[in-house]
Design a protein that fits this description.
7-stranded parallel beta sheet
């Protein structure tokens, strides 16, 4: 599925890269013999209160308006042994953002929206320019109102400001008509000039996140579009930093500990012990390949089918799990090559789920990565899982990703050095969660608080063989629906209906587990050294107001008291869609 912000670039089915090739063909200039092997150490593994500050007449609230009261471990507050690790002065997050003007793409998506809300609520920011795809200013303003200002995510901010809320957000949030899939981001000359003069920080959050979308669509959204944003950012006179929201899975098919290293043009992620002739990733060649495939197929259906297949084949060839991860990696490579002396921050979150605390616990938008699994299991429609129960999952709440992004922007921009820094926002290395624990927490919750549609909730079974998984799932679902014992009418309609329902549920369970296969057997963890340093450099107040430490998460309480209730409220009750 696409994040909300991906509506910024939804090309028609016959979309072609041809008009953009001239913009990107110079990537070939970067394709020297700079392939780097990154040796990674292998880890052992098994087989199978409310506070505020006042600036410019407005109050900025530095903690959620409805703080969550949980008995959680806190490694950085209230423990005398940690006092030596606390920076007295801190990073200076609030001071950095005072009066700064920010340009954000993808602001209507899950993470982009949380970043906007947090900056507005907790810092004395100048203006936040939101690039919005719309036919004119009125349409952009309408989207801003409906998708951001009136969002329930902003209720906390609305409650804090009361009658002045409307005036506050209208002054701070500036919609800009644009499209990152167009040259110069689709900006008119007046808007472009204003941004070049005003913007201090660019946050590039827009992306297409469908794992196995058409290759050309993902190249356009995740490679050439960020390139355009960077080229525009380089023309901003007061630019302090460019932040790119990526994904931790750009590290590809590697095992052990994934380091916070930049990706270099030409890198592939094939396993280092692979005997095959490892190819070199040439982005210009990949664009050409997608372009040729667009014109080679005979119909729109064939184009879509061929380009989805092509993307998966190229991802497999170069060592990534899917087309999305491959194109996000390509996007990082391009940014690293063209950035010049622009300070760049790469944020690589793992699987983003609902908010831990801010602005309210459990807020989520859209059916996220693990939520279809949670909902299907809660309904009794997922009796088994294709994966290793001892594998470590990696989930991170959206507010921790937003806080890390904001704090890291302040830290890296204050250095005033033309560096590229990578931050993994992950939990697996410091607060690991295994699948066996995850599904146990789900079982405990749904066993005591079943969904209306739930049927026979039992502990999940695990399979390492997909055929065994499919056979077991088919038997369990068939037994639930009693397809062997159901009595039909003289035409057999009732029997056929039950059998069709069984086939549909089995097919969905198969599709779900195939989609998550790459993380069901994922033998790697993500190094978070830069995020840990960030925590140490924060003052005590910053650690409270911009919480980023994953050690504060109790996973049982997070799922049972925060996330699943949030899924029920914002997804199940919000849509009542049958899965």
């Amino acid at each position: 599925m696409l994040m909300t912000q991906s509506s910024l670039f939804s090309p028609p089915i016959n979309f072609s890269l041809k008009k953009h090739y001239n913009e990107t063909k110079n990537i070939a200039l970067f394709s020297g013999n700079n392939l780097r092997e990154n040796k990674l150490s292998l880890s052992s593994r098994k087989k199978i209160g409310k506070t505020g500050v006042l600036y410019n007449g407005y109050s900025y609230f530095t903690s959620p308006c409805h703080p969550l009261q949980l008995d959680l471990p806190n490694h950085f507050n209230g423990d005398d042994d940690d006092d030596d690790d606390v920076s007295t002065d801190g990073i200076g997050i609030v001071d950095f953002f005072q009066g700064k003007n920010i340009l954000i793409t993808g602001a209507t998506g899950l993470l982009g929206k949380v970043i906007v809300e947090k900056i507005l609520r907790s810092t004395p920011v100048g203006k936040i320019y939101l690039l919005i795809k719309a036919k004119d200013k009125d349409a952009a303003f309408h989207r801003l109102t409906n998708e951001i200002i009136d969002s329930d995510l902003f209720k906390c901010l609305k409650d804090e400001h009361g009658e002045s809320y409307e005036a506050f957000v209208r002054e701070k949030l500036i919609p800009v008509v644009g499209d990152i899939c167009e040259p110069n981001m689709g900006l008119d000359s007046d808007s472009a000039d204003a941004l070049r003069k005003d913007v201090h920080v660019v946050i590039q959050s827009a992306a297409s996140t469908t794992l196995n979308e058409r290759y050309d669509v993902l190249i356009e959204a995740n490679v050439t579009a960020p390139q355009r944003v960077m080229r525009f950012a380089k023309t901003c006179k007061n630019l302090k930093l460019f932040a790119q929201i990526s994904t931790a899975y750009v590290n590809g098919r590697r095992e052990g500990v994934m380091l916070e290293d930049p990706l270099i043009m030409g890198d592939n992620r094939r396993k280092e012990d692979c005997d095959a002739n490892i190819p070199r990733l040439d982005i210009a060649d990949e664009i050409n390949l997608a372009l040729k495939s667009c014109s080679a197929a005979a119909s729109d259906y064939d184009v879509t089918k061929d380009l989805k297949k092509l993307g998966l084949e190229r991802a497999e060839l170069f060592g990534w799990y899917n087309t999305y991860h491959l194109t996000k990696a390509m996007g990082e490579m391009v940014l690293n090559e063209i950035r010049g002396d622009v300070p760049v921050l790469i944020i690589r979150p793992t699987v983003i789920e609902s908010s831990f605390k801010e602005p309210v616990p459990g807020w989520i938008q859209g059916n996220r990565m693990f939520d279809p699994v949670i909902i299907s299991y809660g309904k009794g429609q997922l009796p088994a899982f294709f994966g290793n129960p001892e594998v470590t999952m990696d989930i991170i709440p959206v507010d921790m990703v937003a806080n890390t992004t904001i704090a890291a922007i302040a830290k890296e921009a204050n250095k005033n050095k033309p560096q590229l820094n990578v931050y993994h926002v992950a939990s697996s290395n410091r607060n690991p969660l295994k699948y066996t624990d995850f599904f146990e927490y789900l079982y405990e919750y749904f066993n005591s608080s079943p969904l209306v549609e739930s049927q026979n909730i039992s502990r999940i079974e695990y399979f390492s063989d997909f055929n065994d998984f499919s056979e077991y799932t088919r038997g369990e679902i068939s037994q639930q629906l009693e397809t062997n014992n159901v009595v039909g009418d003289e035409h057999g309609n009732v029997i056929r209906k039950a059998q069709n329902k069984c086939r549909a549920r089995v097919a969905y369970a198969q599709q779900l587990c195939k989609m998550y296969e790459f993380i069901g057997f994922f033998n790697a963890r993500f190094d978070t050294r830069n995020t840990e340093k960030l925590v140490k450099e924060m003052s005590k107040e910053e650690r409270i107001n911009f919480e980023v430490d994953v050690m504060n998460i109790d996973w049982r309480k997070y799922f049972q008291e925060i996330h699943i209730p949030g899924v029920k409220k914002h997804i199940i009750n919000g849509t009542r869609a049958s899965i």
